[in-house]
Amino acid sequence: MNLPSKLIEDAVEQFASLPGIGRRTALRLVLSLLKNTTEEVEAFGNTFIDLRNKIGYCKTCHNISDTEICNICTNLNRDHSLVCVVENITDVIAIENTEQYNGIYHVLYGIISPMDGIGPADINASTLVERVKSDEIKEVIMALPSTMEGDTTIFYLSNKLKEFNIKISIIARGVAAGDDLEYIDEVTLGRSLVNRTVYNSATIK
Amino acid sequence: MNLPSKLIEDAVEQFASLPGIGRRTALRLVLSLLKNTTEEVEAFGNTFIDLRNKIGYCKTCHNISDTEICNICTNLNRDHSLVCVVENITDVIAIENTEQYNGIYHVLYGIISPMDGIGPADINASTLVERVKSDEIKEVIMALPSTMEGDTTIFYLSNKLKEFNIKISIIARGVAAGDDLEYIDEVTLGRSLVNRTVYNSATIK
Questions:
Q1: Contact across the interface for B49 and A47, Cβ inside 8 Å
Q2: Most CB atoms within 10 A, among A178, A194, B20, B21?
Q3: Contact residues on chain B for A36, CB-CB shorter than 8 A
Q4: What DSSP line would sit under chain B, residue for residue?
Q5: Where in chain A are all domains bearing CATH 1.10.8.420?
Q6: A-to-B residue pairs, Cβ atoms closer than 8 angstroms
Q7: ipTM for this prediction
Q8: B113-144, pLDDT tens digit by residue?
């Protein structure tokens, strides 16, 4: 795709560098931006510069926050003895959207992945240990991906936390809502049998 | 979807204002941007501001161009007696990609659409008439959408151009490559019968 202008080319390159956006979509976005006024496009560009320069993280849970301590950590209606460990802020948003969780969080910003050169020092692991040491935490829920890397991270963290008198739990792994048994992989189906729970009609919606 | 930060919220809003990008995709893009360095994000934002402030248009054909006259109009190997009228620069790119056209262009930046309040004065129609009047143009090809608005625009332009001694043509309308006849709409199929061409094995790939 030959573009008629270096400026367009640059703008297309920038959009196409984002995940899931190809050059054709990028061009459509660029042409749509060009229809806006100069002020609107300046606001568009400056929003991202502001974002990068001014973004802050909660000192307690590392969630993105405009204040020193985030809304979730300052909310006294939430259970501060329950900490959910997640990989990323998208996971916080996903869990918040379920409206099933009333504890607080700890965002690792990554999981241990030797293949990608990510070790325990590259994620927010030590601050989790400090929180457990100093705070009134009673339970840590590991809400990490059901992958080799997720499992490695859970193993590492639970080892670090086992000296403290807390409960360490892991989110349930099994059959997803709407899944047909015949299409589920063996590992998931096997786990769902091993980790079967006592039937209670109230827990099945 | 509740976002933990006003800065994130603003950035998501900006991405979500672009066509085809919803809030969930926008959040993914914002979080991907946040992983970049400050310099990279500043380059990202400034690219669009530069684009809007410095973008130029070819004085002859109105195509986007970094120079006063675009590459296509200055190319002496192209046929300057043949002008293809298109709605937008994406159409120029699409036609260039076919590698079947060696003439020059005229970009209208819109088509006449009374429903949207777009009249002949809102598109680059008068400059086309001037080009035909002053230049060595022998044929004008109307490569506009096969819609009510496209047809209205073709009717208007051909009326304006009929006083000059030039050929006015329109790109072929008919069955698209790979189409099965039974799924084609009546208008297209009807037209393809009325506008049938003499069979020549060389023209069918």
A1: no
A2: B21
A3: 52
A4: ---S-HHHHHHHHHHHTSTT--HHHHHHHHHHHHTS-HHHHHHHHHHHHHHHHH--B-TTT--B-SSSS-HHHH-TTSEEEEEEEESSHHHHHHHHHHT---EEEEE-SS--BGGGTB-GGGTTTHHHHHHHHHS---EEEE---SSHHHHHHHHHHHHHHTTSS-EEEE---SPPTT--GGGS-HHHHHHHHHT-----TTT--
A5: 6-54
A6: 158
A7: 0.73
A8: 999 999 999 999 999 999 999 878 999 999 99
